[in-house]
Amino acid sequence: MTSLKISNLTQEWIDSLQRWHLEFFFIPTTVITLSALVANPLLLTCIFLSRALRQETRYLLLANTLTADILFLILNLAIVICNAVGAEMSWLVCELLTAVTVTVYSCAVLTITLMVADTYAAVRWPLHYHDLLPPARTRRILVGVWVVAALYPFSLVIMMELEMEHSHEQVAVCLVLISLGFIKATNMTGIHIYFFVAAIVCAMLIFYCYIRLYMVTKTQGIWHCRFSRARVTLLAHGVLLLLYFAPGIIFTTELFLFQKEEISQDVRVWISTVNMCVFMLLPRALAPFLYGLRYREISDTLLQLLHWHSRLSQVTVA
Questions:
Q1: Is a pLDDT exceeding 80 seen at residue 152?
Q2: Buried b (16+ CB within 10 A) or exposed e, 74-98
């Protein structure tokens, strides 16, 4: 794609944003992001300050999810604010932001999938669980997750740099949709494989683990009570998984519509803005409460941390 076409499209996108005053979506984006950036680092602090929590696989997986979410929130907020105030950036910087954003989003989804698999392994093989997934092996797995999540996005950036000229030209708006939309025109198969196949594999693994979990535990009586902890936990996890996967499905639909000329520009701008400013942020704002605070060990550690901070404040005042 020529740099002129990219420049024209980004300017048209800005015109649609201003015509519908969609730049005001940065307000809910900022509110949701700041609330998540308070809760997520707090849970991370609880995990890293407790040696016992750092030695458990489920908390290492949760910490990795929270870390990826924090990075995504910061990048997303920076992009939304830059687009809202009309700050221009070079196409190369936009491509790199796109690659990092896709990486951290994919890493969070992959880690959520691993959390489900970890729960299944703990219930299915309780006597061998710690031998199967010791902390050292879990850390190596998480490094592999980051590598896998980063491999394809950064490969696309390199390909685009080799194919395009004038990559340092300034663009009026930077969006993952626009960057991947142009890449999609020449690498459609690769984009579809990355998003569709990855989503299908994760979804199938999650469904398999939950079905097997139900079959293994159905004779233990934990599902008989309507408001049992098992039912509530499954509902919370199901809601959070839906919130993580739904924006990805919407984004994949956006990519499909990007090349359709019969779809108006305003429709594309509305869908992208709502998905980027609201839907993609909801799971990251709710994850600390639906996942983190349901763990008794994290809740106890958080209470101890707050109690210690309160006592320290009293001593300082005295």
A1: yes
A2: ebbbebbebbbeeeebebbebbbbb
CA pair distance 210, 88, nearest whole angstrom:
46
Helix, coil or strand: residue 89? strand
Q: How far apart are CA 70 and CA 2, in angstroms?
A: 34
CA triple 246-251-255, angle to 5 deg: 150
pTM: 0.89
Q: Burial, 101: exposed, middle or buried (Cβ in 10 Å; 0-12, 13-18, 19+)?
A: buried
What letter represents residue 177's amino acid?
L
- Compute the 3-state secondary structure of the chain and give helix, strand, coil in percent, each to the nearest 5: 85, 0, 15
pLDDT band for position 317 (cuts 50, 70, 90): low
Q: What are phi and psi of 312, to 5 degrees?
A: -65, -40
